[in-house]
Amino acid sequence: MTNQIIQGILLGGYYALIACGLSFMFSVMRIINLAHGSLAVSAAYLIFVLSERAQLPLWACFLIAMAVMAAAGWLIQRLILVRAARGGHLLPILSTFGLSMVIENALFEQFGADTRSLANAIGDLSWDSWEPISGLYVGKLPVLIFVTAVVMLAGLQLMLSYTRIGRAIRATAEDPDTAGLVGIDARRVNAAAAAIALVTVTVAGMVLGMRATFEPYSGAPQLLFAFEASVIGGAGSLWGTLAGGIILGLAQTFGAAIHPLGFLIAGHAVFLIILFARLMVPDLASMPARLIGRGSVA
Amino acid sequence: MTALSIETLTARHGLLEAVRGLTFSVAKGETLALVGANGAGKTTLLRTLAGAHPVHGGSIAVNGEDVTRLASHQRVRRGIALVPEGRKMFATMTVAENLKLGAMAGRKGEWSIERIIGIFPNLEKRLHHKTGHLSGGEQQATAIGRALMSNPEILLLDEVSLGLSPLIIDRVYASLDGLMTSGTTIILVEQDLSRAMAVADRVICMLEGKAVLEGRVDELTREQVTEAYFGLNRTRTEKVPA
Questions:
Q1: Using DSSP, how many helices (H) and how many strands (E) does chain B show?
Q2: What is the secondary structure of A102-144 as a DSSP string?
Q3: Res A143 pLDDT > 90
Q4: For residues A168 and A189, what is the distance between their CA atoms, to the nearest angstrom?
Q5: In chain A, positions 152-171, which contact chain B (CB-CB < 8 Å)?
Q6: A128 at interface of B, judged by CB pairs closer than 8 A
Q7: Nearest Cα to A274, choosing from A238, A231, A241, A239?
Q8: For chain A: N or C, fewer Cβ within 10 A?
Q9: Residue A291: its pLDDT value, please?
């Protein structure tokens, strides 16, 4: 039981990590980025190429990938999402769906269907663990991922609360028209927010490559887990995303303990139950965020 | 010297022309009151000047520079600040954060949070409270403070007394007194005729999107303004020479 709780919480850290960018983008730009998973996978491929083929150290690959993905986020916002938004609320979502198709097929064209991994680049860390008490094993990588998720969410929270760009992002998320009246260029702020979101996606992509294998079509399940964690935690709430990830991770871990097929089914079932409860009792929407702390962008 | 001039300005809500070919200018340091009944086009005019509503025709110039096609955030950088009707606070943010947002345009000037507190002392204890939890008067003070933090040359005030008690309105106007004598150009939309005529140098009375009466406050009678305000003599368009 203790083992399952710990493993579930640590798995939740991973889900929070992949959901972070999705939640951030939704809260600031009100866009559900259906290319989120594919972008994470493309970040993983970028790090893989830099690490395996260019033989750069992993930290250097990560920094380069972050810069490239941030630029990609800026461009996606300015070239696709801004234009799509002129066509109504649905068009940006469809555009990101189209973008995910393009990314997946481009990756398939370039790398084929072979699975890849960044495990080689991290050596023992991919399987090493601690044994704090007899019979209880805690993986070093899952702990590192959980800590990374907490640090990243805290970093985003601090950025939103105490920096100039953070205040501009919150103001734009709350009321873009009034933000313009105080001198904020909402388009620029949204582009910056998209760049920040894709930096978090890069972290998620690297973690994905470190803990598992990936192939060009791995984006869809990542998007699904990110979406579920985000919705469970209250879409748009940073700390709620962590709570949502932990709830999803615990559900999957306990589901797997009950039956080998229960891993995914239990996660989906909890997601649907919470979604249904939310529709019936709107106050539940902010409960995970309230339980774990504040952090809503808007 | 002219701070703001507009030429045959037209703004629409769909097919309805809310501002119809309006032409006027405002001198530096002048306080202009726009008066008129509901639906006269005053708020649309202010929003159009601030870039929050699209221009359909005509032009707007600030210090001789054409700003007609500039977005609202670019006009703030040119020195136009709007205190919008209904205050439009960022309700999830604190008073201090709202005030700091006002300085986002990066215009150099004398306004600071300390100076804002100097004219609105009641904000000092509220600096770290979310604006959504403030009283109407405190929200209005924050909205004015936020606009001033951009160090504007032209301040547009839209119905600053709306929804406030007479006591609070007196306080808000008392705090604006210093501002009006400091050289800031002010365009004021006010439903309360007496109040508008008491603080303004010049009045433009609008009816159905047009200026039906324009003149210096000391050259107009209250009867003339009231008549224009309610459109009692619609065939006449008066302009009292400045």
A1: 8, 11
A2: HHHHHHHHHHTT--B-SHHHHGGGGT-EEEEETTEEEEHHHHH
A3: yes
A4: 7
A5: 164, 167-168, 170-171
A6: no
A7: A231
A8: N
A9: 58
A248/A19 Cα distance (integer angstroms): 11
Q: How far apart are CA B62 and CA B60, in angstroms?
A: 7
Nearest residue to B126 via CA among B93, B82, B78: B93
pLDDT digits 0-9 by tens, B43-70:
999 999 999 999 999 999 999 999 999 9
H/E segment holding residue A74: helix A58-75
Span of B18-22, B58-62, B154-158, B170-174 with lowest mean pLDDT? B170-174
Q: Mean pLDDT for chain B?
A: 88
- Given a cut of 60, whether residue B237 has pLDDT beyond it is no
Which has the higher per-residue pLDDT, B168 or B138? B138
Beta carbons of A177 and B82 less than 8 Å apart: no
State CA A59 to chain mean position distance. 20
Asked whether residue A118 carries a pLDDT value surpassing 60, the answer given is yes
For A26, the token pair is 């939704």
Residue B17: which residues within 8 A CB-CB, separation 6 or more?
B10, B11, B56, B209
Distance from CA of A158 to the nearest CA of B (A): 14
> How close B35 comes to chain A (CA, Å)?
23
User: Coil, helix or strand for B26?
Assistant: strand
Q: Is residue A176 within 8 angstroms of chain B, CB to CB?
A: no
A174 touches chain B (CB under 8 A): yes
What distance in Å separates the CA atoms of residue A18 and residue B72, rounded to the nearest whole number?
A: 36
Task: Tell me the CATH number at B203.
Answer: 3.40.50.300
Quick one: tokens of B185? 């150009």
State phi, psi for A81 to the nearest 5 degrees: -70, -40
Q: Is A129 on the interface with B (CB under 8 A)?
A: no
A167 and B97: CB-CB below 8 Å? yes
Q: How far apart are CA B109 and CA B25, in angstroms?
A: 24
ipTM entry: 0.87
Query: pTM for the whole thing?
Result: 0.84
Side-chain-side CA neighbours of residue A258 (13 Å):
13
Contact A215, A229 (CB under 8 A): no
Cβ atoms of residues A234 and A288 within 8 Å:
yes
| pLDDT the model gives residue A205 | 95
Q: Strand B2-13 and strand B16-27: pairing?
A: antiparallel
Q: Where is pLDDT greater, at B106 or B74?
A: B74
Q: Pick the residue of B75, B87, B88 with the most A CBs within 10 A to test the interface with A by mutation.
A: B88
Q: Give chain B's domain count.
A: 1
pLDDT band for position A293 (cuts 50, 70, 90): low
> What part of A 278-297 touches B (C-beta under 8 Å)?
296
Which residue of B76, B90, B92 is in closest CB contact with A183? B76
Overall average pLDDT of the A241-250 stretch: 93
Which range of residues forms the domain containing residue B194?
2-239
**What average pLDDT does range B157-166 have in this prediction?**
83
pLDDT in tens, A104-117: 999 999 999 999 99
